[in-house]
Every structure is written in structure tokens, then in C-alpha cells.
Amino acid sequence: MASLTDLTLAQLAAAMAKKEASAVEVADAHLKKLDEHRALNAFITETPDKAREMAKASDARRARGEAGLLEGVPLAIKDLFCTEGVQTTAASHILEGFVPQYESTVTANLWKAGATMVGKTNLDEFAMGSSNMTSHFGGVENPWKRRGDNRKLVPGGSSGGSAAAVAAYMVPGSTGTDTGGSIRQPASFCGIVGMKPTYGRCSRWGVVAFASSLDQPGPFARTVEDTALMLQAMSGHDPKDSTSAPLAVPDFVAAARNPDIKGLKVGIPKEYRVDGTSPEIVALWDKGVEMLKAAGAVPVEVSLPHTKYALPAYYIVAPAECSSNLARYDGVRYGLRVPGKDLTEMYEGTRGAGFGKEVRRRIMIGTYVLSAGYYDAYYKKAQQIRQLIAQDFKTAFQTCDVLLTPTAPTSAFAAGEKMDDPVTMYLNDMFTIPASMAGLPGISVPAGSDKDGLPLGLQLIGRAFDEETVLTAGAALEKAAGFQGRAAGY
Hints:
Elements: H1 9-17, H2 23-36, E1 43-46, H3 48-63, E2 74-78, H4 105-112, E3 116-121, H5 160-167, E4 173-178, H6 184-190, E5 193-196, E6 216-221, H7 224-234, H8 252-256, E7 265-269, H9 279-294, E8 298-302, H10 310-325, H11 343-354, H12 357-370, H13 375-396, E9 402-406, H14 422-426, H15 433-438, E10 442-449, E11 455-462, H16 467-481
Parallel strand pairs: 2-3, 2-4, 7-8, 7-9
Antiparallel strand pairs: 1-3, 4-6, 5-6, 5-10, 9-11, 10-11
């Protein structure tokens, strides 16, 4: 049998079911990997004792014949999910030392399925960023390197720690959140699979909020099947979350194990051919169309005419919601408190010291667009554009079943590159934001490499609550692409 850390999530579950390994042995093997690759800074908080304790309980359940879907599988949890008794920081100084007394619904579902937690992963502060360089706890390093170049690369953001942990084989799966591309873009940069489910498919209860009408938890893994296994466990209606969809959870795993796409109509949006996209990514996109065609799919050109407005509209809606959500961090109830001579000085001192530069920028933008005299001109207009974007997708899905697009306009860039220009950084999400604005499911699948040997992902977008078709098409793309890349040394 291969090394336990080399096994996929599905293979690990099978090995434990056959008693070829215990959950404790699996946990120990992955904790050793954490020790070896700590320099990547993928984790904010490691929980080795908790992992072993959960693994022992898992072995006991298996012995009683009570094994769950993810029994004994070690996972990493983005440090945006509240975990009972374990520090949850959102990668911000303002929440450093905050220990929740409750468990997020998504993580509770994963523990119910038998999974174990090895730690809480690093992220862009309050999930605001596309590089994982805005964390109060330092940036995360991508396990991948350019061929012949030893510069550190970013893992993408905001869920960069979760993506790097999977790409470095520290865990077979992890959780992320996707507001405008924060699962799909890091998955592309790190050569793994990442999925944003339909808005409302996974509960947001217990997840530190950035933009409430956009945030959606989702999984990372190394294969489409593993992603489906995690999504199966994470999903479900939650009465504690008013935006959680009261729908039954389909068999995502069966969909991922059936890559039959004969007759499937794959839409190719013409507006996604934009300036600034790497020629290698455009070539891979064209190759992806041919791969799906060879597997029996039917390519169809579609139009999403309001695509060019998605990015500016997003950067009005998301900061507006962030401004509102982050108003609660004032030094009064929990988290950091910087004393002042009066209440106003305490607020100003706490928020000034507690929030990083990018978070402060977005709060300022959001407060401005919500202010009297600007609400109608900016926020209301952006919401109207959002409706037009959603309608574009509905029209496109009248002639196709899924859409195929690039995930990101480039491969992973070096730490420090592009960092001084917020607009250039925001362009990293140009292909992922439209689906987020419409609340649709999307998956990034590693489909090739660039001239420097870095992984490139392609994105599949589906109809609302049709993750099954997205997973089936994703599995077909994965099979056709045959991506076997692995970061050197990991």
C-alpha cells in the first residue's frame, strides 16, 4: 500500500474500512507531514491532541460498526469556521485569542460523518484577498515553484492555507469559503480541486461573515470524487441559517463517480476571452473544449453580456456587506480592546490596531457606498447589475447544461508581485466573480501546466442546485486531462 499521506480521501476511507490502517495511524501520518512542512505557514492553529483524540473515538465507532461517510479522515479547517474550544481568528489581530463556545454547522456535519481535525488553516484576513498575503499571521507559501526559479509563490486566496495544506499532502481534504472565487482560484494555483456550491447549499451558521449574500462554504481535495465526498457531508438544510436552502442533499458521490457526459451541452461564454489572460490559459481552455467534445459533450457558444460589469459591481456589494458585518468588532464584547479616554477613542484605537490594511480599505469603500447620497448611485445600481448577471446565466442555461471557462487569468504569481496595486489583485477573480454574484455552483479542476511547470485550472459552472451535473462534468474533465502534477518535495 502507498504511504498513508499519498492516498486520496476515498482511498484512505477504503483502507480504514478494510482495517489496513487505523484512524490513529492515519492521523499520526498526516500530523508528521504538518511538522515537515510547517514552513509553508498553512496553519494558524494546529490541533494534534484533538486530532488523536478524535481518531481514537473514530476507531471505537468503527469497531462498533458505526462508521460514517468520512470516518477517520483527517481534515484541515479554514480559520473562518468557528470550532468549539479551538481558537478562531479569521486571520485577524482583532480576533486573536477568540475561542468560540459553539461549533459551526458545516464542521459539526463533518465531525458527525466521522472526520477528524488536524488544525485551522491560514487565510487572507476576514477572507479579503486573492493571495493569502493579508493574514495577520503572515503569508502562506504555495508548495509549487516555477521551474528553475526558487522564488516563493502565493497559493491564492482567501482560502490559501486550506489549498496549500491539500497540495502539500498534509491532509487529503480541507474546507474553504468562496465569496468571489476564494476556493476556486487557490485550487487553480495549487493544482487541486476546489468547489463552490450553490449559495445556500452549505450552512453559513458559525462561519465568520465577510459578505453575507455571497459567502459560501465548500471543499478542497485532490480529486473530484473526494470533493464530492466532502460536499456530501458538509451539505444540508440548517434552520439556524435563514439563507440555507430547505432541500434534500442529492448523491454527489454517485455523480462524481459517473463521468458520462455524452450529449451534455457545454457552454463557452464568448465574453470570457478578455485582455490580460495568459495565452497559455486561453490555449488550455480551447484544449478543454476539445477534451470534453472527445468525451461526448457538445460545445455551444453562449453570451453573458453583463460579464464586464461583474467585477466592479462585486467590489461595491462585497465591501458594503463587509462594512456592515465588521461593525460588530468594536472592542466591547470580544476580541481585541485598545483602551481609550472615551468610547469613541476606544472604537478607533481597537479597529485601527485590529484590522489590517486591506480590511480597512474595504470597510472604507463599503461605508462610502452605503452612505447618504451614494447608496442609490452605487450600491443600488450594483444590485441591479447583479440581477442582470443572474439573468444572463439563466438565459445561457436554456441552451447548455454547464459552462466551461478558465478559473484564473494567470498561474500562481510570486509573493510581492501585484501586491501594491489593489485593482490588479482584484482582477484575479475576474472569471470566478460572475458565478458568485449569481449564487451558482462552480468547480475548478486542474487541467494542465504552464511553461514554468505551474498548474492551471479550468472552471465548470452549473445551474443553481445542480452540483451533480457540475461534478459529473468535472470528473469527465479530470479523466480527460489526466493531470498528475505534484509539487516537488511534497
